[in-house]
Design a protein that fits this description.
Sulfite Oxidase, Chain A, domain 2; alpha+beta; 4 helices; 17% helix
Length: 170
């Protein structure tokens, strides 16, 4: 009985000293850069200068927070995902249809999009990573901002976008 009591006391004492949960350390982003990652592919980083060199499109969307139409210029998210060999177009079928994207801002705010929402062969709306609004650099909400054109509320518009991660379900 005494031995059992001693073991219980030791167990209770040790439970007070639990180790913190460890996370896989994030790859640090250089200031003002955007990192795109995918399974089985090295991360691709874009500085603002690298990003400006990519083909841009412009879209006009209604921002429910400001109750105004706004014009953004940026790169289609699909174009950025092609840089990490995302299965898009004819490749987006079967198991690839379960892939998704997590877009994260510098403040930790994250949103999820299905890969099919990003692919123009599946979805009419535009999903872009903008670097300009109304013809000017994004400023305090940038340098990069995720814009989802068909959303009625801009809850998935990620300000200060720093990472885009293509993921597969586990």
């Amino acid at each position: 009985m005494r031995k059992l009591t001693m073991i219980a006391l030791i167990g209770v004492s040790l439970s007070a000293f639990t180790l913190p949960q460890t996370k896989t350390p994030a790859v640090p982003n250089p200031p003002n850069s955007l990192t795109v990652t995918a399974p089985d592919h090295a991360p691709v980083r874009f500085s603002p200068a690298d990003f400006r060199a990519l083909p841009h499109i412009s879209i006009t969307v209604h921002n429910g927070h400001t109750s105004a139409d706004e014009t953004y210029s940026g790169v289609p998210l699909a174009t950025l995902l092609e840089k990490v060999n995302a299965p898009l177009g004819k490749e987006l079928r079967e198991q690839a249809m379960t892939n998704y994207v997590v877009a994260t801002g510098s403040d930790g705010y994250s949103v999820v999009l299905s890969l099919a929402e990003i692919d123009q062969e599946f979805h009419q709306g535009q999903v872009i990573v903008a670097d300009a609004q109304e013809g000017h650099a994004i400023g305090k909400d940038g340098p990069f901002r995720l814009i989802v054109s068909d959303d009625k509320r801009p809850a998935r518009w990620v300000r200060n976008l720093v990472s885009i991660a293509l993921r597969r379900p586990e």
